[in-house]
Structures are given as C-alpha cells and as structure tokens.
Amino acid sequence: MELTEQDLQAAEQRMQKLRSNGYAVSARYDRRSGRVIIELNTGVQIAFPAELAEGLENAGLEDLAEIEISPAGLGLHWPKLDADVYIPAILQGVFGSKTWMAARLGSSGGKVRTEAKAIAARENGRKGGRPRKTATGS
Questions:
Q1: Cystine design at 63: which of 6, 39, 80, 135 (Cβ 3.0–4.6 Å)?
Q2: Which of 16, 13, 70 is nearest to 5 (CA)?
Q3: Based on the structure, what is the number of domains in the chain?
Q4: Which domain holds residue 63?
Q5: CA 55, CA 81: separation in Å to the nearest integer?
Q6: Do 87 and 102 share a structural domain?
Q7: Within 13 Å of residue 69, how many CA atoms lie on the same side as its CB?
Q8: 138 in any annotated domain
Q9: Is the domain of 26 the same as that of 66?
Q10: Quick one: 27 and 79 in the same domain?
Q11: pTM of the prediction?
C-alpha cells in the first residue's frame, strides 16, 4: 500500500485534533506514591498507579524510572520494559488492550469487597457452600 500526500495530511490532521485535548510535556515515576505522573501542556497533571497499566504491572523501580515521551506527546514509552501507554486512552480510563483490561476486570469480580459479603460467604461455607441449582421441569 502506497501512502499519498493526501493520506499524510489526513494523518497530520487527526494527530493535531488529538493534541488539542492535551499532550504530555513531562512524565516521571514517583517512587513514594508508586504512581506515574504526567504533566500536560494544559497544566493538568494525571497520576495513576503503575500497576494499572499493561506492561508496567510487575515492573521494578529502576525500570519505571526511565520514561520517554513520543515526539507528538501522545504516548509514553518505557525502553527497559518495551511498554507503551497512549495518553488519549489513559484520559478515557483505558490502561491496556481489551483482552488485558477484561482479564483485570474478571479477576476483581469475584473478590470479597464488603464485610457483609465476607460474612455471607463464611456463613454459606459453614452450611456446605452455595446451594445447588435444581432443574425445574415443565
């Protein structure tokens, strides 16, 4: 597939539109809070726990410390981890691929979140577990 001048102009326009919502001018990892902190050209700062982002979840402190900003300011890259995040996606709460995000959501779905749920689960366990479903025939 050959790129035309028109294709390049269209891509440039899409990038400028994305940049109009803000782009990174600095990024760092704060060891004390365990967060990646991004400063946008608008003055807004975004901070998120590193373990929320795909590719960063099991990274060491030294690996997280080295962050590169893409030339357009729309992406961050961790060279030691070969991991990337896309800032427009981060602004929308998307921290990885659909598959990765779905796996994270699924793993948290069955966790005990409230004391009432924990008590009910223990009570249910004492009774032999969740009652079996019975088939009802017509």
A1: 80
A2: 13
A3: 2
A4: 21-95
A5: 7
A6: no
A7: 18
A8: no
A9: yes
A10: yes
A11: 0.68
